[in-house]
Amino acid sequence: MSLAIAGMGWITPLGNGVDPVWKRLLQGAEAFAGKITEQFGDQSYSAFRVPDSALASLAPHPRLRRASAISRFAAAAGLEALQDAGVKLDSLNGDRIALVFAISNGGVIYTKRFYRDIVEAGAQSASPLLFPETVFNAPASHLAAILGVTGATYTLVGDSAVGLLAIRMAEDLMTNDSLDYCLVIGTEEVDWLLCDAYRRWRLLRLEPPMEPFSEIERGVILSEGAGAIVLARHGSLVIERTHTGGYFRKRTEAKEILKGIVSDLAESKIDFVISSANGTFIDQAESRALQHIIPDTMIYTAKPALGESVGAAGVWQVILGAQALDRRELPPLLHAPSTIPLPVPASRTALTKARHAIVLSCGVNQQVAGLRLSIP
Amino acid sequence: MRENTAGNGKNAPARVAVVAAGVVSPMGFGLGETLDSLREARDCITRVTRFSVTECRCKTAGQVPDERLLEDGRAAGRSTQRLHRTSHMIIHALGEATTQGPEFKPELTIIGTTSGGMSNGEDYYRSLHRHGNLRHSPTWIANYPAQKSVIDAQEAFGISAPCQVIANACASGTNAIGHAFECVRSGRYQCVLTGGYDALSELVFVGFDSLQASTPEKCRPFDRNRTGMVLGEGAAILVLENLDAARARGVPILAEIAGYGMSTDNFHLTQPDPCGIGPRRAMERALQSAQISANAIDYVNAHGTATLFNDAAEGKAIAELFGRVPVSSTKSMMGHSLGAAGAVEAIVCLLALQHQFLPPNINFHASDDDIELDVVSNEARPAALRTALSNSFGFGGTNASIVMRKFEA
């Protein structure tokens, strides 16, 4: 079963809106990495944050009054995607669209604040206003209320492969004739605590740049934002095939799982690959899998420019792939070593007659997924 | 994944069998102990021992004893020392399922949870905050993600299916089973492993306490004097398979999943619409999915948290839709295990259908004048059951219902 991409929405550290962000990527822009600190931590970290100006056009809504950044990002991206698709929801069709959210760390800012109160001042100081915002499905609930969705609403949690798993879920949901559309949203917010956890896990880089496909794993810079795609049954740009994905037990096994996925998805000619390379072990696993199956295919990752947005990352990759197919060009790959054994767009690169792309997503927490985008 | 295409080009709806199941909860380890607890109407709520509850109104919960949880893992010779309690729980539940019938090979795993390995996050934060020993932080961080426990359990039994982890608050377990059911019914999958899990965590416990949703008293669902919920924990696994394929393999069929409905109630982040429209829509959609009328339902396992708002809204919806159908909330016995609740309660329905009895709603003393239900009060009742419906509702206004049917060849 293939699904069409009917609309897209994007909010990133490079701004909001699919076309503006795309334009900046084509120009070779890289998001500004700000410093984040914590009162009890002696270490500060670099992170790519969404600028305040990117949320300026988000209309006020009672549900967003106390909502965390993750919910606001999701609302901004979701509303843009629906507008792009020309989908209007009302009381008659609120059950004919499903929401599927992809999240990794969730509302970490409020979760930390809620638990900090418990640790510092005891259970009696815990805020009943904060607690409901800590649940993983709070962003989905807020957007459902804003849109008037009354049917299926799912929140999937996982690592940075979760965005593609959510699209796979949307494909399964759309086998049901009672749905006309599925809105898939990947969303994430960044916080000092996450940066600290990634550092202790030896996956974080303290300062930019993120260097994809380097032999030395220097780590990620975390980022935040949201991406949204409206999936429909008909359209000119399709997700031709999703792969159910898989998981690896040890990092050294990731390459074999990726090879299997690429092999399945590369049954027709592939013009380029949108990779999840982020400066960790993932890069070599993807690179080696691709060298084995489709060594002459161009590969691109936007993570050096936008950061690792974890739960939002997979949907961002699909937006990138769809834009590249639609506009027939790829942005320049930033900070890649000259020794990389795969073709990469060193500068803004035309993709004449490109019709098929693979989006490959390997997470640091064992999950792997992929899909194929096509212009029929 | 396979395409099961009928002559008209549409996927023919397949019947969906439960071919294996396993459970760990405060009611016991395994289907047998759970059945005994249900029949004996055991109160499995105890004082919380995992963290301090001195400052909380509520002091009790349904708890899975660590000694036994960890001991059985060691006995099985597995390297499980570094695993989170949730991994141990799922390993137990999946282990029980793997002992039933011929080998199953799921193409997909769909599991519900609300908070994954939250207590690892708590340990990490507390150590950071007091500038304590962070030697274990890589283990805490690695075991925090919600999918980790599911992957741990699959690894323990050589299962390599990709995992989808649904976090739809307290409806997660039923959503997971419902979506797994739809995946098999559509013909896109032959076999899907599903269920739910959650372990008690301080953050969540204090959270419900701060909302005054949990009670310092007994949990009394649907009772006139109910004062709130008590939390619980556990894990339950069900293996769903295309019924024809299961029969062809000669697999014993424990029950059928016949229908699934969900709805989103946009009334409030933590409270249901008092008119009961959200639960009602979910139940109506489940009946429609099962292609049966309301009078075909013989028993409703209610969400029944014993909060004023939930029970009023759910009770109204059940009464309007089903009239005087027998209803119970087994949370009265084991507490509310959040992401595991829907899965554990699906096991309760499965046992009720297999053994032909109505599970009890304990601590029930006085009917609520505003809720006209036939509550299965305090003792299990023998009954001829063919079809049961199980409800789960959660924060965010997410509502889910499944219909289960006794298997009749």
Report on the architecture of this protein.
The complex is a heterodimer of chains A (376) and B (409). With 376 residues, chain A is α+β, with helices and mostly antiparallel strands. Chain A has one domain: Thiolase/Chalcone synthase (Peroxisomal Thiolase, Chain A, domain 1, 3-Layer(aba) Sandwich). Chain A is built from ten helices and 16 strands. Chain A has helices at 18-26, 69-85, 108-121, 138-147, 162-173, 192-200, 254-265, 281-293, 303-306, 313-327, and strands at residues 3-12, 15-16, 33-36, 45-48, 97-103, 153-157, 181-188, 225-232, 238-242, 246-247, 272-274, 298-300, 329-330, 349-350, 356-362, 367-374. In chain A, strands 1, 2, 5, 6, 7, 8, 9, 10, 11, 12, 15 and 16 form a twelve-stranded mixed beta sheet that branches. In chain A, helix 7 packs across helix 8 (281-293). The model of chain A has no long low-confidence stretch (mean pLDDT 96). Chain B is of the alpha/beta class and 409 residues long. Chain B has one domain: 3-Layer(aba) Sandwich (Peroxisomal Thiolase, Chain A, domain 1). Chain B contains 13 helices and 16 strands. In chain B, the strands form three sheets. In chain B, strands 1, 2, 5, 6, 7, 8, 9, 10, 11, 13, 15 and 16 form a twelve-stranded mixed beta sheet that branches. Chain B has a two-stranded antiparallel ribbon with strand order 3-4. In chain B, helix 11 links the parallel strand 10 and strand 11 (326-328). At the A-B interface, helix 3, helix 4, strand 6, helix 5 and helix 6 of A face helix 4, helix 5, helix 6, strand 6 and helix 7 of B. Strand 6 of chain A pairs antiparallel with strand 6 of chain B, so a sheet runs across the interface.
